[in-house]
Structure prediction request, 161 residues.
Amino acid sequence: MKTVLAVIALLLALPADAHAEPDRDLRSVEAVVEAFRASIVDRDEERFMKLFLDDRTVWQYVVGDANLAKMREKNPQAAKAKVDAKNNPRSFIDGIAADKAKSEERFRDVQVLSDGDIASVYFDYSFLADGKETNRGKEAWQLVRTDDGWKIVSVIWSVNW
Prediction:
């Protein structure tokens, strides 16, 4: 019991912002994740694009092995991780805005690591069109904290149909 009281007393003696900063960073990064999700649902291209540092954001998928095997049955040259300059955040949200189907990306088990200036976000995702799952996998983002808040600099994800 004395040990528990000593730990509590030690925590209370710390400056208030000594343990508040990581919580604030976590909430701020989680707000970016939520804005990303809401921008897709709302088809809000402007809000979506403001989440990224600039137009050079890495935007790369990798096809899961089971799907790649099926793809290679039809096209033996199919690539596991094809680089395509036309595949970027702008083309992604433009496609969603133009599609008649309602789109949603769901996130589960979101993990955030940050030192206050950089952050990594890792989670399970599923993408839905008109309420039906079209693909799922793992997704990872890298972010930097700018004068204008957290901005995404890379998005990578695995694709499984």
About this structure: Residues 19-159 form a domain with the Nuclear Transport Factor 2; Chain: A, fold (CATH 3.10.450.50). The CA atoms of residues 29 and 95 lie 25 Å apart.
